[in-house]
Protein: 1-acyl-sn-glycerol-3-phosphate acyltransferase
Amino acid sequence: MPMSPSSVSASARFYASLLVTGGVFVVLDAGSFVLRHTLPDGVRRRRVARRWLCTMARVAVRYLHAAGILDCDMAELGAIAQRRDLVLVANHPSRLDCLILASALPHMVCVTKASIWERGVLGSTLRTAGYVRHDTLLKIIGPASQALGEDCQLLLFPEGTRSRAGAEPGPIQPGFAAIAQRTRADVQVVLIETPSPYLSQGWSFLKRPPLPMRYRIKLGPDFSAPKRDEASGRALIDAVEDCFKKSSLFGREDLEHS
Structure:
């Protein structure tokens, strides 16, 4: 069955957006390369690299909006954009999550999978910006504490991996609570709501989803730094898990009918 003109147009815009976004990442890596060779390793270089990453993420997100690929409401993030020494915990429906959040949060440092650090594109940028490699909990507490000590916001996806489209969030890993206890940092829940399956677990990078992809970023509860005891840590983990489940139940339906 032949494709309709509107479907052909959507496919053309989608695949063109992949090329443009790929070009943005190449420019991002090139800028990071320049920073590594012009500034000595240290706090200043990491701060400049984070601003550069935020700028290029913003370019990518604004382009996707203009091209009709992405429709993302992240106005609520303005309330925390300048807060520092803050642990952010977010659900993880898509690989686009970090890009979207980085475009709005210039002081954000993300705990990222170790496999991303080995990639030719992006891995070196993450190292330059002081992002934290996700190995074992004992190995990430030191770098995470350093990032928070540099007045950053530390983003973690406590599910540990992306969820599948239409599925409930996965079980919550306790690492974020241990970091908040260790650093005495407050914890802000970030809820990413989308009906789009694109780049969820099992979705191919090249498979076009329905367009535009609708996202809404909401702020959940803001928890004070937990006490350094097992009960306080467990209560925080349970509260965050409950937030994720409620958002999964109600947010997707709201977006589909908006």
About this structure: Helices lie at 5-38, 43-66, 97-104, 114-117, 123-128, 137-149, 175-183, 230-256. The chain has eight helices and seven strands. The CA atoms of residues 124 and 148 lie 21 Å apart.
